[in-house]
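Reopening this one. Same input as before:
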Amino acid sequence: MPTPQYPQRGFTYLGLLILVALIGMTATATLQLGAVVARRDAEAELLAIGEEFRAAFLSYANATPAGQTRYPARLEELLKDTRFPRPVRHLRRIYVDPVSGKEEWGVVEAPGGNGIIGVYSLAEGRPIKTANFKSHDLDLVGKTSYRDWKFTLPADALTPAGPLAARQE
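Same output, byte for byte:
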């Protein structure tokens, strides 16, 4: 008896291969989307941490006693400002850079090199966010590197003499 010929032989195998390929493409797309979401979250956290640093630099500058420099020489001085009988804390901790994952920050030196007025991320890479920043971050618009995102002391918010300086006179 001759064996019957089935023209659909291998159809199930081909369907299974197509299904495995579709699952692979879906998994790859999901991983890529997850990476983009993680970068966006890291950027949002970097902006929040940058605002914390900016507020700490402003607090340090405005609390400066008369005759002393308004800028810290090191970031650690924001944690424990020993210019007073009782140390003042302008920042709770030195944050880890959420983009690079490192504790190290780039620093922006004050004019004349007599202290630090800002920080920036040392992370390599191009930011996803390049527009639609809050008003205090408008200088970040169009920047093409995380290293260009500088969080500096807002000079227009400085008081002529720190409030603690006025109390100590």
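So the earlier flakiness isn't reproducible anymore. For the record, The CA atoms of residues 79 and 92 lie 6 Å apart.
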